[in-house]
Structures are given as structure tokens and as C-alpha cells.
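Below is our example:
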Amino acid sequence: MTDGEFKRDLNYIPDRITADGRDGWPVEAGRYRLVVARACPWANRAVIVRRLLGLEPALSMGMAGPVHDERSWSFDLDPGGRDPVLGIERLQEAFFKRDPEYPRGITVPAFVDVPTGQVVTNDFAQMTLDMSTEWTAYHRDGAPELYPDKLRDEIDDVAQKVFTDVNNAVYQCGFAGSQEAYEHSYNKLFARLDWLSERLTDQRYLVGDTITEADVRLFTTLVRFDAVYHGHFKCNRQKLTELPVLWAYTRDLFQTPGFGDTIDFAQTKEHYYVVHRNINPSGIVPLGPDLSGFLTPHGREQLGGHPFGDGTPPGPPLEAERVPSLV
């Protein structure tokens, strides 16, 4: 590890919600609440997967606000500042119901058991895989296969590269404690973005010819790149809009139902620029960049591929879950 390198704590509550209930948490419609924040890229993965699979009727979603303090995410977007299902003001309360001495960060996304009010898990990487593989009884008709058996090894390999060198590397740039650590993370990030550009030059999606979990994981970082990471985290060799292949790829996904309709850029910018006072002491949120380019033609359909495989696009978002339009 390079001196001054940001080290993410990856020790999450490991319980899983499964079809057979082996951890004591069986899949049941209406029992669990997915708690997220629009601003968070890790939570955004779960929001997208829930939309694509059509799990809304079986799995409700609570929405924390974009700004939090050291105590945790809070439900300040809800009337009275309380989640209407869980009845709590802060996600911290669900963690403390599970363990009054819970010692780690209070993170989103999290599954919360509604009857007991206890958090079940905040293991973001496993949560979306389980939504694909364990919640199949509640998938909508036409739901895509985001984690197909025959492609899992390749998806896992690509997803690990994306996590290490893109998803997490932008944070390692932003929170670097030394010039050496920053430059190491910066070079790692842009080397991987170059690798991804080459991989996606002649194929529409990262693995196979349909959208998979790997695409979901890359998208949530790329879509935030120019609005946050380029300036705020000093990831500034190029903007996303100056990387032709990745810019077209991100526009393609953004315009695909289930992706762009989960993104709230105002909340995203407010979170990063207000919460990270060690990086942005003034708390001023920039007005730019112009984001209307996400809706421009991308031309990626010429590469073939079928976004949802043999399935169909999800329907429109629930009225209560709509995000502001870019136009």
C-alpha cells in the first residue's frame, strides 16, 4: 500500500437474503426495505438492478437525503424527517437495532427487515447479485439476466477490475493523503479507462451482447465522472465527454430504461461538494457542467447487441421514485 493511500473498509454485515433463508432471512415480498441515497454510486447499483428486474412490488425503497453527518444518512426528504415505513430518522437506528455497539460506518445501500427494524446487510456487492439470483420468484415478466451462469466468471473478473481501478480509484484520488498516493491512483484509473475504451470499441456491452451486472457497476461511476470526480476528486486527465468510446457507452446506458431514470445530478453534486468539507471547505456546489449531452445520440446500436437479451425494458418508474429530467 502506498503511503497516504485511501483504504476503503470492506467489512460489511455478511448476512444474505436468500430463497432458502439459510442465514435466517428468507426472500419474502414486502418484508424488506432497500435503503439507498440517490447520490451514492454504490447504492445506485441496487436502485438500477431493482428497476431492471421489476422488484418494486416486492421490495420497497427508502430514500435518504444527499447530505449526512458523522452519525449517518438521514431521511430528511420524507415528511417529518422520518422514513414512512421504518419510522426512523437515521439509518443508524436500524444498525443499532441489530447491534447496539455497531462499530463501523453506516452505509447505503442496506436491506432492513421491516418487522424488526434491524439492518440485514449492507454488503453492496453481494446485494445486487442476490437480487438477480435469489429473488427470481418476484422478477417481472421479461426481466433480463444480469448475472447469467455461463458468463459469471467473466463478469466477476471484469467487475473486480472495474471496482479496483475505477469505482474505488476515483475515491483514492480524491482522498489521497500524499502526492505519491494520488499519482498512483490517478495512473491506475486512467490506465483502466483506456483498457475499457479499447474493450468497448467493438462491443456494445462489457460482457456478452446484453447488459450485465458488470455494466451496472461501471455506469454508476462513469455517469458521475464529469459532475463530480473530474474536478472534486482531481481525476482530470480528461473529462468523460473527451473519451469518445466511454462517453458514447455511458449515453447508451443513460438512455436505456432503468439507468438514466435513476440519476439525480442535483443530489449527487450536493452530497459530494457539501459533505466532503476536507476537500471543498466552502461547501459551494458548482452549477456546471452542462449535462444535456447525456440525451444526445450515441450510435452504439450499430454494434448490435440486445440490451435486455430475450427480455423487455422495465416500465416507467413509480411516481414517487421519479427523478428530475435533464430537459
User: Anything to note?
Assistant: The chain has a mean pLDDT of 97.
